[in-house]
Amino acid sequence: MVREPFTRRFGTNQSRQSTHPKPESELNRRAFVQVLAAGLLVTVTEEPAFGQRRGRGRGSRGARNVAARLHINQDGTITVMTGKVEEGQGSRAQLTQAAAEELRVDVAKITLVMADTDLVPDDGITAGSRTTPSTVPAVRQGAAAARELLARHVAEQWKVDRAALDVNDGVVSDKTTKRTVSYAQLLKSSEIAESFQQDIPAEIPLVPEHQWIAMGTSVARPNLRDLVTGGHRYPSDIVRPGMLYGKVLRPPAYGATLESIDLSAAKAMKDVVVVREGTFVGFAAPTTFRAEQALKAAATTANWKTVSHPSSRDLFTHLRENAGRGRPSTRGSIGSALSGASKVHSASYKVAYVQDTPMEPRAATADWNDPILTVWAGIDYPHRIQGDLSRAFEIPAERVRFILPAMGAGY
Fold first, then answer.
1. pLDDT-based confidence at 326, cuts 50/70/90?
2. 35: number of Cβ within 10 Å
């Protein structure tokens, strides 16, 4: 097996460098990061809906009463926040369309903020093609609630029925008098902010399909220009002041454990930071080349305890015998089903073993700016990683910010 070091990148807070331990000192993981690191918010509430139903869904995460957060700017543009991840599947476009449709504005007026745990709700993991059936309805529900609360506010101020008003292109108008007021103008009222603190009704009218303008149409990805010109920044493009680049010692085979290693040569190298915690060994330096040199200097002294693995010839038998071990099935018995069948056809097929692998360079960047730890990486569940980092470094979750600019297909 070829061992390919995983690149880790860490930012430093220059103002704190004088208090850092010396580079050659032995560190644990927490100290490792410390050494290296340096309009109107409109909130509407509704649990995620299944499919395109209007009713309340189940299994919501994070702030259970939040479905969408809308920042309406003074110029009439709207920022929509979601915890979902864009990893090449086009979710940024469809979620933008969903918000634009219910808010009755042009797609160009919507800016979507994704996967930043300081700003967005926890919409769950981006997997299993769940963004379309789960998060699109949630965004629609939230945007529709914002639209209706704004319209009802205008109806109360003008003393007319809600049915007498039209909402189009971010403007509420009276069908009869033609009187108008824009979303941006409504921001001047303190009552608007207060009205968005209430839970939205269980039933909120969504724009019917025959009135769709944005949804169901072909819309270019909002960040298409940056993708084509190379302006978009992926996790591997993040650069922080005073950043050090890290390399991690990897085992020669799956399941191998480190028994011993001599780190003296790496520690003696200028500008190199060495960290070891149990079997974890990492090296950091101002350049990836220097970090790689340190890694190679130590790797030649490593002694590993390996375990045996099935050969390619025995792989299928091994997988069949061990698949699902420790997780008993709750879906019935195959044997019982076959014995009760009127006719059974049996055949065996074998295909090449497929192992998932990223389709882009994998990188993580950490910036420790006390008391906040900010991490950029490619992952499909930002809020789960926020929790993992909180536990790993033994700090409150609110002191951890995880940001995913977008992945280039990091499945």
1. low
2. 23
Instruction: State how far the Cα of 37 lies from the Cα of 16, in Å rounded to an integer.
Output: 9
344, two tokens: 């059974």
Q: Read off the pLDDT of residues 10-33 as tens digits, 9 standing for 90 and up.
A: 444 433 333 333 333 445 555 544
Q: Rounded to whole angstroms, how far apart are CA atoms 145 and 45?
A: 8
302 burial (CB, 10 Å; 0-12 / 13-18 / 19+) is middle
Give me the phi and psi of 281, to 5 degrees please: -135, 125
Alpha carbon distance 99, 114 (integer Å): 13
| Sign of the C-alpha dihedral computed for residues 300, 304, 308 and 309 taken in this order | negative
pLDDT in tens, 171-182: 999 999 999 999
Max Cα–Cα distance, the chain, nearest Å: 84
The pLDDT assigned to 200 comes to 59
Question: Is residue 142 exposed (0-12), middle (13-18) or buried (19+ Cβ within 10 Å)?
Answer: buried
User: Quick one: 329 exposed, middle or buried, by C-beta within 10 A (0-12, 13-18, 19+)?
Assistant: exposed
Provide the whole-model pTM: 0.75
Q: How far is Cα 251 from Cα 107, in angstroms, rounded to an integer?
A: 49
